[in-house]
Every structure is written in structure tokens, then in C-alpha cells.
Amino acid sequence: MKRVITASLAIATMASFASASDLNVSVKASLNDTNAIEVAVGATVDFYITGDLTDDLNEGLALVGYNLHFTGGPLPSDTVDIPAGVADCSNPMSGFVKPEGITNPAGFTGTLIGDDLVQVGGAQNTIKNTVANAAFPIGTVLTGIAQPAGCGTAILATGSVTAPVVPGLYTLELSELFANVITDGEIGDVFWATEAAGVGSIGNLAITVIDICPPDNGLVASTPADQQSLWRTAKNIIRIDFGGSVAAVVAGDYEIRELLDAGAYGPDLAASFDMGLEGSTLRIQDLAGTLAHRTWYAVINANPCDGIGDFELQFVVQVGDADGNRFVTPVDVGQINASPLGAVADDSRFDIDGNGFRTAADVGLANAGQGGLPAKPAGH
């Protein structure tokens, strides 16, 4: 593909084989104007490619082409934008696009071969063709492109790539660079003679992909509160309010573990619990009656990137603690016995067996559970 363009232009312009200026190119992130950027997984990374000729022994770029490769995956055919508008020093490459200029058959944005874009770029109408002869190129040549004393740094291309979903370091790489410049002293009489430019430095774009967490809402309150008691033999319920939007609950986000001595924890019991959201409130319920009487447990946020922030809440199971003082005494038994029979709220402390009703069975469970506050395991 490269030989098709360079050969045809060499014949048309009688290009010299003498080496002229070198062309330095650099792939930069549009966001920070550097050759390195850090983005979230799946983010869109806008980029642009600059070109600078190393000296003024020429009259600016006449032709430029190169390949693009992305270590983060295949490049779509529309990776590179098609320049539009009137060609001037701020927008020089529109003169390299058909019909103003000439490109390979696939166009200025390059030919998709495998995962790469090959021969991105094009050439100006240095042969001074007119529409009477051929449909393209028919543009007016702009001198000084990428020339230090002319237009200065040229934007050779713009475009975007999508960051991979796996964190890591990736590179948008430019290779196989070739270019012609207009020969110094040309005035465009009949045609504009050109000569090959040398390949100077190439700066590729390093893209570091990371998991960027949303801002933390932070825990506002819980019911029961931290260090307080759970009171049932089954279906103990905990509500945790975060005071703001919360992402959907995903398995593994929250762990429920028994507190052990020496600051240790037991295995995660979360699989036995129902977890769901009520607005900005997380509702956790022990469906299987997993929690043991007179035992301490922790609810732990195990997902550091869920927009909530780290937390650990600790609860002691005291079956029958109707008044929530962490002790089970005759007072609790009396309160349950005196409360109305029938259906109760899902967090009623008079419902000791978790069946949704206050019955005589709840009185009996509270009576059997009487006792003081068990010591929390050492290290917690």
C-alpha cells in the first residue's frame, strides 16, 4: 500500500531522492497534552498526533503516512477522524483528504489489516491536477505545514480509542512513518517538486488503565446501631443507611463473619443472607437462622470500589432482647408478653422467632435466652 502512493507521487512530481528534513511525530492524549494518561477501565481516550519538521530546508509537508497499533485490542476502522474544513495552518490535513488531496483506496483513516490501521494519512495536490483531468486531487497546496518557520507544529490526525476493561499499561503505537516535503525554493510553477523526509523521533501514547472508584457516600447510620444486639433465633434484620446513591448489591460486596479471639474472623456467612437495596439503605436479613445466640458478628464492606467506603459494624446476638439494651432479663420477657398479639413489622423486637407475628412462642424464646452481655472476643 505504501508503494502505491509514494511511487505515483514520485512520478507525478519528479521527486528527488535526496534526504531533506526529518519529521518528528508524537501521539498525545487530548485531555492532558502528554504521551501518557491514566484512565478508568472502558474509558474513551481521545488522542491527537503532531508532526514537526526538524529544519526549514523545505517548504513543508507534502505527503505523510504511518501505521497505528493498539496493544489494548483491535482498532476499529473509524479510530481516526476525517479532517474537514478549509486547509490552513491550524487545520492543514484537510488538504490531504480526497478530493482535495489523495490517499490510499480506503481513505485518510487508513486500511484495516488485522487489528491495525495501515497507511493513515495522504498527500496534497502537488501535481496541480484539475477536475478536468481527474476527480482528485484538486486542492490548492498549502506550504509551511509542520515547518518551524512556517505553520509550526501540525496536527496530523485526531481520533479516539477505548480503554480495555482489564487494568494495566497499554500503548497506542505509531510505526512505518514515511513523508515527503516540498522542495525548498519551489513556487508551484507547473507542479510542486517534493523530496523524501527522514524519520525523526516517534513518541507513542502510554495508557494506564485503572479501576477508578466513585466518590464514597459514607455510612450514615444502621439499625440496630453498631455494637448493639440482634434479637432473633432466625431472620435477624439489619438496615444500613448510606445517605446517597448506592450501586446494586453484588455477591461478595459485603461479608458477615463471626468475631474470633486474637482479632481473627470466622468464615464468610453472607451466602445465607438476603441482601437488597431500599433506596440508599442496604437491607440484610438472615434467612437461614445462621447466627448463634450470645455470639458476636461483623458486617464488613468487602468492595473498596462500590462508592460507599470501608466500614465494619459489629453486633451481638442476644435472643429475646426486646428493649435493645444488650441484656435479656425478665423485663424483656414481660414486654413481649404484654405486647399485642398478631402481625408485626419486619424489624419488631417483639418477634423473636422471625415469623412476622408476636405469639406466645416469642415469650418462651425470650425467657429461655435470658443472660448478660457476652464478652467480645479479644482483639476486636
Question: What do you see in this structure?
Answer:
With 380 residues, this protein is mainly beta. It folds into 2 domains: 2-210, Sandwich (Immunoglobulin-like), CATH 2.60.40; 221-368, Immunoglobulin-like, CATH 2.60.40.1220. The chain contains 3 helices and 20 strands. It has helices at 2-13, 330-338, 360-368, and strands at residues 22-29, 36-40, 44-53, 61-70, 111-113, 116-123, 154-162, 168-182, 194-203, 205-210, 221-223, 229-230, 237-241, 254-258, 273-278, 281-286, 296-301, 312-317, 342-343, 357-358. Strands 1, 2, 3, 4, 5, 6, 7, 8, 9 and 10 form a 10-stranded mixed beta sheet that branches. A 4-stranded antiparallel beta sheet has the order 11-13-16-15, with no helix packed on it. Strand 5 and strand 6 (116-123) form a beta hairpin. Helix 2 packs antiparallel against helix 3 (360-368). The longest helix is centred in the N-terminal third of the chain and has 12 residues, at 2-13. The two termini are 70 Å apart.
Low-confidence stretches: 1-18
- The level 1 CATH classification of the largest domain is Mainly Beta
What distance separates the N and C termini? 70 Å
Helix content class: under 10%
Strand proportion: 25-35%
Any idea what the radius of gyration is? 36 Å
Largest sheet: 10 strands, mixed
Total of helices: 3
What spatial form do the alpha-carbon principal axes imply? rod-shaped
Indicate how many domains the architecture comprises: 2
Q: Spell out the helices and strands N to C.
A: HEEEEEEEEEEEEEEEEEEHEEH
Q: Remind me, CATH topology of the largest domain?
A: Immunoglobulin-like
The mean pLDDT is 91
Secondary structure class reads: mainly beta
User: Could you tell me the number of beta strands?
Assistant: 20
Which architecture name of the largest domain does CATH use? Sandwich
